[in-house]
Amino acid sequence: MSTEFTLSAGGYTAVVTARAAALRVLRFDGRDLIVPFPAGGPIPDYRGIIAAPWPNRIADGKYTFDDVTHQLPVNEPERQTSLHGLAFPLDWTMKESDAGSVTLTCTVGPTAGYPFALELSARYVLDESGLHASVTAVNAADVVAPYGVCPHPYLVAGPSPLDEWVLEFAADSFLEVTPDRLLPLSLARVAGHEFDFRAPRGIGSTEIDHAFTGLTFDDGLARLSVRDPAGTGVGMSWDESCQWLQIHTADKPAPIPSRIGLAVEPMTCPPDAFSSGTNLIRLEPGAEHTASWSIYAL
């Protein structure tokens, strides 16, 4: 059973697991703000994990970096991709903890397909304004390392079905993907498309599993809100290190429960960035990179 840490402050409660440094529970006044998962077992659908050293998927698990080709293990066999990095199966180590915060660390690599070494640190802090999280990566080797990161929470607006939730986030483009493998094709404008949520509107039956960019940052933060017609809601903000945003309506084939939350994943780079190089972080030896985000009740 994975060790976990319970935080509380200002009406908020959070539970963070050592496995994957995952956010297992986040509640405000007893109301779930994310889709939780049971303690002690596997983490379903990558809920709440830290996806590093890459977010999303790499086609065929194969990429070339600085003229060297690498082959990662394929962990999404139905699409023949390497999904969500290497940190999620790991048990992270607690560095420091108190009633309202916890910092967990782990080492990623060198391993098959990723002959680099990163020291990762995930910090979660609760206060009266919500949950504030950050991930810092330090290159612990003597060669440049490719890197990307994202969190993977499934937000819950309230008790109504997801189709009735009202979504708003400012992005001007989305990445079209292949229907079978969800691999990048080309950027398209959201204007006139069902993926245009620059003004608040209901999600309805729209199915989304796409990356968005052209985000609007106000005072250094991009923001998303999702609201339930019952009157509750949840918001998320993130800093300019994350120029991409994956949105997924969590569609599942019957009889699996479907559309039970909205995955909101601020990403430092788009899907398959290890292959395309788009917004890929080149982490120099000894250098560090930090991405941060917050989740809060509305």
Core attributes:
298 residues, mainly beta, Beta-galactosidase, Chain A, domain 5, 9-stranded antiparallel β-sheet
Structure characterization notes:
With 298 residues, the protein is mainly beta. The two termini are 33 Å apart. The chain is built from one helix and 27 strands. The chain has one domain: Beta-galactosidase, Chain A, domain 5.
Q: Round the Cα radius of gyration to an integer and report it.
A: 18 Å
Number of domains: 1
Termini separation: 33 Å
Question: How much of the residues is beta strand, in percent?
Answer: over 45%
Biggest beta sheet summary: 9 strands, antiparallel
Q: List segments where confidence is low: pLDDT < 50 over at least 5 consecutive residues.
A: none
Number of strands: 27
Kindly report the average pLDDT value.
Answer: 97
The rough form would be described as globular
Structural class: mainly beta
CATH class: Mainly Beta
CATH fold-level label: Beta-galactosidase, Chain A, domain 5
Walk across the major sheet and give the strand order. 10-11-12-13-27-23-22-17-20
